[in-house]
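Standup notes, structure subgroup. Blocker cleared on the zinc ion input:
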Amino acid sequence: MTTLMKGGTVVNHDHAVRADVLIMDEKVLAIGHGLALPEGTQVVDVGGCYLLPGGIDPHTHLEFPFMDEVSVDDFEWGTKAALAGGTTSLIDFCVPRPGQSLLEALEDWRGKSRSAACDYGFHMAVTWWDRQVADEMGECVARHGINSFKHFMAYKGALMVNDEEMIQSFTRCGQLGALPMVHAENGDVVEHLQRQLFEAGNTGPEAHGYSRPPHVEGEATTRAIMIAAMTGTPLYVVHTSCRESHEAIAAARARGQRVYGEPLIQHLVLDAGEYQSTDWDHAAERVMSPPFRDKGHQDSLWAGLVGGSLQVVATDHCAFSRRQKRLGTDDFRRIPNGTGGLEDRMRVLWTAGVNSGRLTPEEFVAATSTNAARIFNMYPRKGAIRPGSDADIVVWDPGATTIIRAEGQVSRTEYNVFEGFACRGLPVMTFLRGTLANGAEGLLAEPGQGRYVARDPHPATTVANRIRFEATRPTPVGRRLELVP
Ligand code: DUC
Ligand code: ZN
Ligand code: ZN
Ligand code: ZN
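Run returned:
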């Protein structure tokens, strides 16, 4: 089947141009004017709209067993929420249970993801270290298309890794050409502050924010950056939420280190005042880690997006129901950490970023799609509208408006942290590999139509990093020299 999208403006990360887009067999075939149309071409009028590369959210937790609960948006509903919001690909975190091997966990995630309605990939979490983990990381890269490994520096006693485990794993990533990622919060300090706060009688959700102050994140980010410098690997810092963490990333980049930072849409527009609500549910529903910050931190994150020291806007979509949140009624430490955002990320970022004049439409595309595709090696199959790319295309109407309401949302939660947010600029049609997945008729996407995106390793990135590292320090840690092609 061939489809022509006629009369729109194609926006890629580097330029925008008025042009028609011809789609054939799931791919973009041609972009231009007066294109020769095969017989039977279906024409879609997109006059007055932008055509954007489908959103890529590289940070989700669908059906995630976490804090003794399981997040309520599974692969079916999480990916449908994504498509409703203009996101056509996501990368979910495969997290082994304690004692479970990486490859067994991958089997679990494969099973859960069979119901995916949009395209998806996996990162793998490394939550302890031994020889088997090292071997299985190699398998993940060589055979399963996973080229990124996540390290939790928080969640002591559950997911947290110590510094030795991190340097082992980062070194292994370097050997494999894979990208280490960190959830950067100092888990020892968090646990200490949580206990102190709780023992002093602070049981409510506002204590969650106090137990994870910005310095906890700044310290861990700095530590991870230094370890990455010693192993000669790049580093991706997930959910960069505060000035301290952003400045550590910016300083590392200025030194020539390849460090990437990912603010969440939540942290860009919502602040710590949410935890002061007299409505317990309202505050608890917004408990996530890192927590929402005081407003001043938002300016730093926006500056990072504009200036290039932060590259990707994600969601950390990890949705819990009100019932699950209420498990922490007597103790904030038991409130499952997580919020949703897949449905909202693009429309909220457009409203707060593009309409405000902070971001150009091209920069919006970079932050919501292209940069993630490049960093995680899905580019140019994903993250661009150009001949040969998957026809993942969002028809974006900059004049369309809505007010975000939990009622009627796709996500299975009863609330929405962006409740009441007035959006201007909406995805009015979302095409996944050339097929309409969401439009005026509502969601058309079927569970199971999402395809797994295998991702190759990143030799170029690690080589470049090694050279910079050697220039500043003559004795590299690890065994990089024999491994570089
Ligand atoms: N933070 C959350 O809020 N939820 C899931 C995991 C995480 O790190
Ligand atoms: Zn995290
Ligand atoms: Zn409320
Ligand atoms: Zn996360």
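Discussed briefly. The longest strand covers residues 393-403.
Next: hand off to the docking folks.
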